[in-house]
Structure formats: structure tokens, C-alpha cells
Design a protein that fits this description.
Elements (H helix, E strand, L loop, with lengths): L2 H31 L17 H7 L2 H33 L5 H13 L2 H12 L5 H8 L14 H26 L3 H9 L4 H12 L1 H16 L3 H6 L11 H11 L3 H25 L8
Length: 289
């Protein structure tokens, strides 16, 4: 190994140590802990094999949380990416006040999720919330959006889309501004419409950015917990309980750390499978230039 390679590895060493100590080592420890019981006082943990996973299979709350999380992911990922792309294309053009419009789109991203959750709590408050005022003006009946199991998950999904779209817009905007202006000039000479130019030229060249955004959107969809804690605490009747919130309750409310470790392993396996699918399928459509 030459001196240049040694220097490179030494530069990477602090990051690798932190990555291993705070990511890989806890993940490996969770896998080990999932095969043991939860220690209680003077009673040490004992090996129980797959018992924690058997409990998980029989746990209706786990299956409800998994189903909720899949619907939450299906609601937030396509919507936030599509909205981010539309906003990026819109503010990338020459228009008056585009700087202010970009700032308005990006503002939800810089707000803490706890603050965002409290803002939307006011929007959804029955009787006098902003949404209630709008529906009342239209002559529609009052509705408890967060208290109704049929609308609670959709309500928190809307909050997540509103929060994340501006963040993803920044990456798309940067990618659009990195494209050569000669591409648009050539398309205009050929008589291509704006839609044809976007579909045939911009969209294929945005695939690396789309892959990056998609990976982040999937991670965000399965690590969402803060605005669930503030807005619904998983209710009503577990209608908004997501996997990470269920894991949080099991580990820190009921203090069943062994079962929480098993839930962590399943969550990591699920994210790993989705990540493999993303890179195995979508990466073939990515054009790096």
C-alpha cells in the first residue's frame, strides 16, 4: 500500500470509527439482543432463541403498525417527490419573484418537526382550527381529522409531504441548474415542447438525483416518529402507529428491550430489502454524466 492510499485511509478513519461505533455496532448488538430475554432487575437476560420473533408474529399492534407504515410510505414518497420535482421545474424558470418563491417552498424544511406538528395541530383542531374555518365557510360539517381512524393517517401523511417536498426540491433545483443550457436551445431549435423537453431530456438526466431523493424518502418514511408523538401518539386505536413509534413504545414505555431489538432487526431488514430493490432496479435507468 503506497503512501497516498495510507493517507486516504487515515483521513477516512475518524468517519469510519464513528460509523462503526454508532451505526454498525448497535445494529449487530440489536441482532444479538433479539435472541435473549429482557433483563429484569437482578434477573439476567437468558437466551430464548426466536421467541421474540414469535411474539412479534402474534402481535396485532405490530401488523397494524407495519400496514400503517406501508400506507404512509405509499402516500408520502411519490407525493413528496412529484411535488418537489414540480416545484423545482417551476422555480427554475425565469420568473418574477422566484427567489421569494424558492424560499417559501423551502421554509417548511428548516422548521423543527415539533414546531411543524404543533402548527398542523392548530390546523386540524375541531371547531376553530384553520381547516375547520375553511370547511365551515364552504358549508361542510365539522370533522375531527386526527380523532377519526379513517382520516388520521391521511392527515399525518399530508404533514410529512408538506415538510419534505421543499427539502427534495433543493436537490432537483441544483440538478436542473447543472444541466447545460445548450440542451434547451437544441430542443427549441428542433421544435420540442416543454413537456417533450422535460420527458425526453431533463427527466433521464435527473435520474441520479431521483435515486438519491428516493433513498432519502424511503428512509424518512420509516423513521418518522416525532410528529406522531406530538399529534396523535399513535391513536386513535393505533390508526397512526408506525413501526418506529411502536418500537419506541415497546422499548422505552413498556421497557421490553429484547422485543424492541427484534423489531429493530425486522425494520433494518425491511429497509435493506427496499434499498437493494432500489439499486437493483432503478440504478439500471440512471444516466451518469
Amino acid at each position: 500500500m503506497n503512501q497516498r492510499a495510507v493517507h486516504a485511509y487515515l483521513l477516512l478513519l475518524p468517519a469510519l470509527v464513528l460509523l462503526f461505533g454508532f451505526t454498525h455496532l448497535p445494529a449487530l448488538q440489536s441482532v444479538v439482543d433479539s435472541f435473549f430475554s429482557t433483563p429484569r432487575g437482578a434477573r439476567a437476560a437468558v437466551r430464548v432463541g426466536l421467541e421474540n420473533y414469535a411474539v412479534m408474529v402474534d402481535d396485532p399492534t405490530f401488523w397494524r403498525a407495519l400496514r400503517n407504515n406501508l400506507w404512509f410510505a405509499l402516500g408520502t414518497i411519490p407525493a413528496s417527490i412529484a411535488l418537489a420535482l414540480c416545484m423545482a421545474v417551476w422555480v427554475n424558470g425565469h420568473m418574477a419573484g422566484r427567489t421569494w418563491l424558492r424560499m417559501a417552498y423551502f421554509t417548511p424544511t428548516v422548521l423543527p418537526m415539533i414546531a411543524v406538528a404543533n402548527i398542523w395541530l392548530f390546523f386540524y383542531t375541531p371547531g376553530y382550527g384553520l381547516l375547520e374555518q375553511l370547511t365551515g365557510a364552504l358549508g361542510l360539517p365539522s370533522h375531527n381529522w386526527l380523532g377519526d381512524p379513517s382520516t388520521a393517517l391521511g392527515a399525518v401523511t399530508l404533514v410529512a409531504v408538506w415538510k419534505e417536498a421543499g427539502f427534495f426540491m433543493i436537490f432537483y433545483l441544483a440538478a436542473l441548474q447543472g444541466l447545460s443550457p445548450s440542451l434547451a436551445e437544441a430542443a427549441a431549435i428542433e421544435g420540442a415542447s416543454r413537456w417533450q423537453f422535460f420527458r425526453r431530456v431533463q427527466w433521464p438526466l435527473l435520474m441520479p438525483t431521483t435515486l438519491f431523493v428516493l433513498v432519502n424518502a424511503v428512509i424518512n418514511a420509516f423513521r418518522m416518529i416525532d410528529h406522531i408523538v406530538v399529534m396523535t401518539r399513535g391513536g386513535p386505536d393505533n390508526a397512526t402507529t408506525l413501526l418506529l413509534y411502536h418500537l419506541f413504545e415497546v422499548g422505552f414505555k413498556f421497557w421490553d428491550t429484547a422485543y424492541a431489538a427484534a423489531l429493530t432487526v425486522v425494520l433494518l431488514a425491511l429497509l435493506g430489502a427496499v434499498a437493494w430493490l432500489q439499486f437493483a432496479v432503478i440504478d439500471k435507468r440512471v444516466h451518469y454524466q
